[in-house]
Every structure is written in C-alpha cells, then in structure tokens.
C-alpha cells in the first residue's frame, strides 16, 4: 500500500444498523462533509425503523435496506461492496452506537500513511482506545502502534486490504468477526496499527457485580465487576470461538491459546451466574454441536428462544460504559 496522497483518497463510512436509535442521525450529521460518502446498511429492522432511516437519509447518508437480519458481517460487506463500486479507496466501518469525532478520520488516515512511510505493511488503522480499552499490543521503535484485538467499529481499511484478504466472514453472523479479520490480515503479513491519541466513545455492554466467590478465587485482584453479554450472544461466542480456533490454530497458535484460555474462564463465570443454569449449558451444547457440524449463519430459533429466557443472578451496575471492561 502506498502512502496516502492528499486529494487521492476517497473515504466511505459504512455503518451497520439494526433497529437504529435517533442518535444515529447525529452521528451521520457529524461525519457529513468530512468523508466522501456515508452508507448505513439496515440489517432487517422492518417497518418500525422507517422513520429513523428516513431521517438518516435526509441527514445525507445512503441507506441500504435488507429484508432479513443477516448479521453484522453481511451488512458491512454489503456496504463495502457499495463503496468499492462507488470508487472508495478506504472504508471506515462503524457500529450504530459508536460516534467517532469527525476530526479523527483524518488522524486515522495520517497514522496509516506514517506507518507505511516507516515501511510497515498496514492492514488497517483504528483509534488507540475505544472507551477505556487500549487497542495497542506493541509499540515499534519508530513509534508505530501495532494492534491486537482491534474492534471493527472505528476501523479504517484500505480497499487494497479487502482485495488481498477478502471482506468480513459473513457466516460468523456476529461476534469474533473483527477478530477473525485481524487474524486473517496478520497471517497474510499485514498489521493493524493504532492512531495515537484517537479515542472512540463506545458502548461495552452491561456491567454486573462481581460475585464473592470470583473475588476470592482471584484473591481480590481485578475489576470489581464482570461484563456479561446478552445471553443469546453466548451461542455465537462459543460457536465462533471453535470455528476461529480451527482456522488459525496452526498459523497463530500463541494468539489462539491465550484467547481460548480467557474465553473459557469467562464462559465458566457466565454459566455460574446464569438462571436457569441448564439453559445456558443448553446454549453452549448447541453452539459446540453446530460448530462441529459446520452449521453457521444465524442460530437456530429454538436455541435463541432458550437464550432469551436466561437472566443473570447478580446485580447490574449502572455507570458510564467507558468505565467497564468487556471480555473480548
């Protein structure tokens, strides 16, 4: 990838949306004029989202609507394909609940250009931090910040990266989509880099009180809370973890081993806090079975219905999202 040349870059923003809130209108308004096009891909929200989507169009975005809920990767890929056909050189992907300051777009592009100038093969550029979480894994002696576990929201990707490694893996549906993409880039010899000082305000999920037994096991160390996903997400987290491990266990063994150990601990904690516990174990079993059988895409409705009946047996902590740490 050659260093960006002022005037030659065409940055298109692609935002995935599902039952979007009116706040998305403000995000589009903020970015308009700072990028070449904003594309919002609605992932099967249905007619209830008509009003918000019309307001998004009036704010200056192109809205693409899908008749069914096909998952975040599929939605983003549709926007990426639109950007490619429209002549984009870079795509900036965002979640609907992320509000990247407009000035940060240029800083992401500049950071990528600087890293290329230092001789690095750049896969993408992301903010140094999302919420309170650092995306930096390593600082090169030339000052380049390399990533690990970068989230796709706020990710500026040259079209050349998609040409080389492909777009997002749609059959994962949700969860580990960005992890799989970063692993694929790394295996191809491309590195994600972070733009120093750029921060993405981002929702990290719900924080819950850390149970006493867990505090005892860790000798009181670590955060005072645990961040739990919405129960249905555990189907995708378990299934996709198995699939990603199978894909990269030989090319990225250390990365896979570390992530698997962290996730297994979290899955055990979630299982102890789920009510009824047998329901979450049922979700886990379905995820393992589907991963082994290669059943991908949207989960079976019977499994998702079981997940919707699960509650967490620990008090939720109300506080700003930037204060919580999500398991990734």
Automatic annotation (TrEMBL):
Per UniProt, which keywords does this protein have?
Answer: Glycosyltransferase, Transferase
> Residue limits of the Glycosyltransferase 2-like domain?
13-112
> Its pathway?
Cell wall biogenesis; cell wall polysaccharide biosynthesis
What highest taxon heads this organism's lineage?
A: Bacteria
InterPro entries xref list: Glyco_trans_2-like, Nucleotide-diphossugar_trans
Is Oxidoreductase set as a keyword in this record? Answer: no
**Family the entry assigns:** Belongs to the glycosyltransferase 2 family.
Spell out the PANTHER family in the cross-references.
GALACTOFURANOSYLTRANSFERASE GLFT2, RHAMNOSYLTRANSFERASE WBBL
This chain belongs to the protein called: Glycosyltransferase family 2 protein
Name the lineage.
Bacteria, Bacillati, Actinomycetota, Actinomycetes, Micrococcales
């Amino acid at each position: 990838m050659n260093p960006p040349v002022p005037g030659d870059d065409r940055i298109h923003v692609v935002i995935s949306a599902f039952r979007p809130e009116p706040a998305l209108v403000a995000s589009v308004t903020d970015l308009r004029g700072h990028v070449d096009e904003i594309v919002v891909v609605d992932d099967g929200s249905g007619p209830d989202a008509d009003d918000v989507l019309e307001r998004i169009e009036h704010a200056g975005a192109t809205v693409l609507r899908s008749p069914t809920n096909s998952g975040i990767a599929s939605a983003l890929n549709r926007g990426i394909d639109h950007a490619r056909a429209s002549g984009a050189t870079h795509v900036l992907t965002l979640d609907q609940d992320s509000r990247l300051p407009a000035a940060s777009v240029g800083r992401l592009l500049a950071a990528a250009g600087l890293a290329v100038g230092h001789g690095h093969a750049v896969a993408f550029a992301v903010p140094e931090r999302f919420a309170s979480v650092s995306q930096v894994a390593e600082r090169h002696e030339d000052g380049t910040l390399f990533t690990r576990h970068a989230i796709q929201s706020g990710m500026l990707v040259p079209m050349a990266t998609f040409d080389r490694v492909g777009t997002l893996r749609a059959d994962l549906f949700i969860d580990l989509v960005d992890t799989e993409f970063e692993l694929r880039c790394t295996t191809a010899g491309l590195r994600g880099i972070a733009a120093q000082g750029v921060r993405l305000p981002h929702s990290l999920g719900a924080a819950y009180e850390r149970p006493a037994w867990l505090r005892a096991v860790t000798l009181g160390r670590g955060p005072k809370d645990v961040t739990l996903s919405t129960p249905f997400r555990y189907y995708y987290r378990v299934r996709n973890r198995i699939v990603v491990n199978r894909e990269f266990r030989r090319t990225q063994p250390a990365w896979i081993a570390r992530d698997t150990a962290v996730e297994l601990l979290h899955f055990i904690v979630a299982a102890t806090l789920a009510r009824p516990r047998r329901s979450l174990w049922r979700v886990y079993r379905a995820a393992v079975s589907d991963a082994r059988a290669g059943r991908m895409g949207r989960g079976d409705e019977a499994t998702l219905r079981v997940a919707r009946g699960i509650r967490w047996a620990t008090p939720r902590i109300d506080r700003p999202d930037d204060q919580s740490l999500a398991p990734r």
